[in-house]
Design brief:
Layout (H helix, E strand, L loop, with lengths): L15 H7 L2 H9 L6 H8 L6 H16 L1 H29 L5 H28 L1 H4 L5 H10 L2 H13 L8 E8 L5 E10 L21 H20 L2 H33 L14 E4 L2 H7 L6 E3 L6 E6 L5 H15 L18 E5 L11 H15 L5 E5 L7 H17 L3 E5 L3 H8 L6 E8 L6 E7 L7 H11 L1
Parallel strand pairs: 5-8, 5-9, 6-7, 7-8
Antiparallel strand pairs: 1-2, 3-4, 9-10
Helix pairs in contact: 2-11, 3-11, 4-11, 5-6, 5-11, 6-9, 6-10
Length: about 500
């Protein structure tokens, strides 16, 4: 059994790099971690593994809500876990380095002792932190972490380990270590077990070394030999701790990733609210995305972009047409960002948002042509779309942004129509921004109730861009000519 704050899906988005890139999620992640840049890959990893069950999302939501309400406690716990994990990583590397070199016994012992001691003290700090806020951990949303932590190491075991490592190197200062062992084949020690340790044994004036039990060693030379013998035993004893260290290294890696994610969610939520942004937790009963805004744009400009309200739960497809530079791509990205955050159990940038689960998300945004491409833009778009179709399955979401704008309108019309019909027939949901008005108008003429048509309009009198999507039949626009008149012809 592992230790975890929350359940994680093992399967990531099939096209995770495209999801992160096309939805500008890497920029959002960098803002989430603030100055903790090393946390970004771990936070991104959690985002790329969507929850695919409503009950799991609701459990994650409770935990993230508690983290946001107790951000200082989460911050302190993050520091302890990350410090313990990263120190253990360094010490295990040092242990491996020692194995490949001829180090003295004392050096090997010191390396092991440092690893074991720092780990045990770190676990004790985690335990103490939870016990100080028992209501939050033992009985509240963090109880899964609390219970799984103590299932690995009980409070009694942690106390015993803390006592032993506190005094384990007491032999350096003429201390005492009581142990039992047996000698196996090849005169190797077997079944080493510490019985007790004490800090110091007093040195008598006559040269005798007193023990709590019996005065034992009279001769200094014999004493030195006994120390060497004890060192050998201690080294073997500590080497037997290596599996214990490895097990905790793995457990701490999971704990570190998850506490980094919770800390990033909590810090980001608090900072963003202070900047005037608003968020909500998605709800299963909700039917529409209400006043949804594009989060990455808000973070770039530090102002709230134009928001949109759309009843996304009622439709299997959304087709967006309208004015050039009217905010269509921004709107599509705002939907994609919100859905990814929803399936991570996070607050989303809206007043309300439906809790609906997709088994996968496939973005298809146009790519700038560059020297690394070994095919034309249209061929590259077809290649990516073919990959999406092979990987997708029922109940997945397609985010298509100006797909196939690089080919003729006749070709683009046919591809778009085939994709739309095939997708809906196989229970895919499609949110599409398109410049192909002939396709949109022909589709509107089919009177399919499960398709919502939106348009990025302008004000009637001034022609000023509104950046707001309105429910409207698709129509031809002349805004490209207006842009030409404004920028070139005059």
């Amino acid at each position: 059994m592992g230790i975890e704050f929350f359940y994680e899906e093992k399967k990531s988005y099939s096209n995770a790099p495209d999801v992160m890139k096309d939805l500008n999620l890497n920029f959002i992640v960098r803002n989430m971690v603030n100055d903790k840049y090393g946390d970004a890959p771990f936070v991104a990893e959690v985002l790329q593994h969507p929850l695919r069950d409503v009950a799991a999302v609701k459990e994650r939501q409770k935990l993230i809500t508690a983290a946001c309400d107790n951000s200082e406690s989460v911050k302190k716990l993050r520091h302890i876990i990350v410090d313990t994990s990263e120190h253990l990583d360094r010490q295990l590397k040092a242990i491996l380095d020692c194995r490949g070199k001829h180090m003295t016994t004392e050096t090997n012992i010191g390396t092991y002792l440092e690893a074991v001691r720092h780990l045990v003290f770190g676990l004790d700090k985690i335990s103490s932190s939870m016990e100080r806020e028992k209501e939050l951990f033992a009985e509240g949303p963090f109880k899964n972490f609390y219970n799984s932590f103590y299932s690995e190491e009980t409070e009694e075991e942690l106390e015993e380990q803390k006592y032993l490592v506190t005094h384990l190197d007491s032999f350096k200062d003429k201390g005492e270590i009581f142990f039992q062992l047996s000698v196996g084949e090849g005169f190797r020690f077997r079944d080493l077990q510490i019985l007790d340790v004490s800090e110091k044994a007093k040195r008598i004036q006559t040269g005798f070394f007193a023990s709590r039990k019996n005065p034992a060693i009279v001769d200094e030379e014999v004493y030195d030999s006994s120390v060497e013998f004890i060192n050998k035993i201690i080294q073997e004893l500590l080497e037997s701790c290596y599996p214990f260290l490895q097990r905790w290294q793995e457990l701490l890696h999971t704990m570190k990733r998850q506490i980094m994610f919770l800390h990033a969610c909590a810090g980001f939520y608090v900072r963003s609210k202070e900047k005037g942004m608003y968020f909500c937790m998605p709800e299963e009963e909700c039917r529409e995305a209400k006043k949804l805004y594009e989060l990455s744009l808000a973070l770039q400009t530090l102002t709230l972009p134009v928001s949109n309200t759309v009843a996304i739960s009622e439709y299997k497809a959304i087709i967006v047409t309208g004015a050039n530079q009217g905010g269509k791509s921004t709107f599509l990205r705002s939907l994609g960002i919100a859905q990814v955050m929803c399936q991570a159990g996070m607050y989303v940038p809206a007043y309300a948002y439906p809790l609906h689960i997709y088994q996968d998300i496939f973005p298809h945004f146009t790519r700038r042509e560059d020297s690394t491409m070994n095919m034309g833009k249209f061929e590259e778009e077809l290649h990516r779309m073919g990959d999406i179709l092979l990987k997708s399955r029922p109940d997945t979401l397609f985010l298509l942004n100006e797909s196939f704008a690089t080919t003729t309108e006749v070709t683009a019309f046919q591809i778009a129509m085939d994709l739309l019909h095939a997708g809906m027939e196989t229970k895919r949901t499609i949110w599409m921004v398109t410049h192909i008005t002939t396709f949109a108008k022909a589709l509107f003429g089919e009177n399919i109730n499960s398709i919502l048509f939106l348009s990025a309009g302008r004000k009637k009198n001034t022609g000023e861009l509104q950046y707001r999507m309105v429910e409207k039949p698709p129509e031809d626009t002349s805004y490209g000519l207006e842009l030409y008149e404004e920028m070139i012809k005059s």
